[in-house]
Amino acid sequence: MQGNEAVVEGAIRAGMRFYAGYPITPSTEIAELCAEKLPFVGGKFIQMEDEIASMAAIIGASLAGLKAMTATSGPGFSLMQENIGFAAMAEVPCVVVDVQRMGPSTGMPTSPAQGDVMQSRWGTHGDHSIIVLSPSSVKEAYYVTIQAFNLSEKYRTPVVILMDEVIGHLRETVNLDEYGDIEIIERKIPEDIENYLPYKDIENGVAPLIPFGKGVRYHVTGLVHNEKGLPTNDTKIAERLIKRLVDKIEKNKEDIVMYKEKGEKEGDILFISFGSTSRAVEAAEEELKKEGFKVGIFRPITIWPFPDTRLRKIYPKFRKIFVVEMNRGQLYYEVDRVVKREGEVENINKANGEFFTPCEIVEKVKERIKNGF
Amino acid sequence: MASRLVEEYFRKETLPNIWCPGCSNGIVTMAIVRAIDNLKIGKDKVVVVSGIGCSSRASGYLDFNTLHTTHGRAIAFATGVKFANPELTVIVITGDGDNAAIGGNHFIHAARRNIDITVVMYNNHIYGMTGGQASPTIPRYDKATTAPYGSIDRDFDICKLAIGAGATYVARGTAYHVQQLVKLIEKGISHKGFSFIKAMSICPTYYGRRNKKGSPADMLKWLKDNSIDINKAAKMKPEELEGKIIIGEFVNIEAPEYTEEYQKMVERLKVSVK
């Protein structure tokens, strides 16, 4: 199965019943498979006129009661940003898949890159928080997609699945039954709908979302709004709203973050990487181990919010930290923020449309430590 | 009548509205409310989606399921709502800047799909919320803050665009001819397919003042004196129609509707829909 295919399987398992999208490589298989499969599970597929409309349509569909998703790559992801901000502000659950390709602009279609790390966090304007997940295998793409829907429902937020071309197009043998029963979070309609306030902090920083047409009429807007959803210019309400939008994710970080660790718990080198790059890093780790180095790997699956609590616990036991990513250094900044000691975080970057080889990672590590740690 | 409609269909805590004295947005909004009331559609089943601009603020005042979206994108959001739950009556409130400029692409594609939503475009020739810049529907050589010497752009005939794009109900009314406007909106909502109603409106504050159109009453009177019914217009010469507003129904045809077509496809595939 291909990575993009695993996303569709995971989405349908999670209850996705609405897909709106616009063709763009390397994400197109996701749209094609949704068009093929959704009619058979009671779902809806629509090809929109552009990515702006795709993002708008999934927000509308989510408000009308269906779990909704779209998928794209860099140029389309840029177009979606304004409406991603709308979903964040209006707290509409939805899932956006960005199968990264090399940019900026049209870049090198469609070679792999991981250049959208910061865009996925800060691409839309204004203060907000967001959840971004990055799988590193086909199997994990399936699992992460299910969790993306769960988190988007639980926290009423857009969730970005930050794939890359390698994982999107990678074919691996997977056994999806391996995961057994995965909890699927569904929308709960509260009993007391008379006094329903769509923007009141009830659980996890949000109120349950009652779809349009269920007998509760309320307003949804991108303007600053009160608990009823009605626009206001009250600065106290504005302060409270923005704080809640950020806190509901940042304060529930420990519930949201996922990561994987491999190798030594202490030693010489700690690698930090995500997505497809971590596959090359794992091979590099084997190689360095053979040469006598003590190497550990920390792989965040949740990129945003960044699993900093965990990283703070493990990094002091290593002499040197290497952040490996297919860009000129983006997650590096976040790692550097967490690791306060100077000179310990190094980045290994590649941004030429070519995937990392384990050898070049090994070589770069050795080059950096040739004069000792 | 009006007070009952306000009582029943408006969120009174949101009133008074933000519109300037003399603005006709209230007239057009009330025409939409009257149409919904006449059709006796339950409030719970109506979704009003709007974009950004003066007219788009109407959604906040109305006691339906309301969605105030991003600039130009109301129809794309509405497409998602309608397609996800075709039982809902979906009405889009938009302005000429919102719909004819930034939202033009979504407008033509929704018309092409013939998805069953009703779009009411309040047409006041300018961007009111940002202070009176020229919109694509400003008459040629009229002035606006971004056309201080008169607009040299040709103005966009949005009804023709809607027809060309495949809309199956297209009409034009005015804020003066209220009874007719209510009927046109009623028919648009009842029509199965993409319906477009252009409501000629007045903005005395920006468009009127800059173009010396007189008081709000003068501007409404101008709409009265310069509008010609489509049936009467059919018998007139093109030169007699120069600068006139033709009002009435341009298109009212049946064609396959998008959400029904999807459902038919699903049935063809013989699947049991949950």
Give the arrangement of secondary structure elements.
The complex is a heterodimer of chains A (373) and B (274).
Chain A: H1 3-14, E1 16-21, H2 28-37, E2 44-47, H3 51-63, E3 67-72, H4 74-90, E4 94-100, H5 117-122, E5 131-133, H6 138-155, E6 158-164, H7 165-169, E7 219-221, H8 235-250, H9 253-256, E8 259-263, E9 267-272, H10 277-290, E10 295-300, E11 302-304, H11 308-314, E12 318-325, H12 331-338, E13 345-349, H13 358-368
Parallel strand pairs in A: 1-2, 1-3, 3-4, 4-6, 5-6, 9-10, 9-12, 12-13
Antiparallel strand pairs in A: 5-11, 8-10
Helix pairs in contact in A: 1-2, 1-6, 3-4, 10-13
Chain B: H1 2-9, H2 25-39, E1 46-50, H3 58-61, E2 65-68, H4 74-84, E3 89-95, H5 96-102, H6 104-113, E4 117-123, E5 126-127, E6 133-134, H7 158-165, E7 169-174, H8 178-190, E8 195-200, H9 204-210, H10 216-226, E9 227-229, H11 230-233, E10 245-252, H12 258-268
Parallel strand pairs in B: 1-2, 1-3, 3-4, 4-8, 7-8, 9-10
Antiparallel strand pairs in B: 5-6, 7-10
Helix pairs in contact in B: 2-8, 5-6, 6-7
Task: Describe what you observe in this structure.
The complex is a heterodimer of chains A (373) and B (274). With 373 residues, chain A is of the alpha/beta class. Chain A has two domains: 256 residues, 3-Layer(aba) Sandwich (Rossmann fold); 109 residues, Rossmann fold (3-Layer(aba) Sandwich). Chain A is 38% helix and 18% strand. A seven-stranded mixed beta sheet of chain A has the order 2-1-3-4-6-5-11, sandwiched between helices. Chain A has a five-stranded mixed beta sheet with strand order 8-10-9-12-13, with helices on both faces. In chain A, α6 links the parallel β5 and β6. Chain B has twelve helices and ten strands. In chain B, strands 2-1-3-4-8-7-10-9 form an eight-stranded mixed beta sheet, sandwiched between helices. The radius of gyration of chain B is 18 Å and the shape is globular. The termini of chain B are far apart. Chains A and B meet through α3, α4 and β7 of A and β2, α4, α6 and α12 of B. Chain B: This is 2-oxoglutarate ferredoxin oxidoreductase beta subunit. Chain B: One of its GO terms (molecular function) is thiamine pyrophosphate binding. Chain B: Keywords: Oxidoreductase.
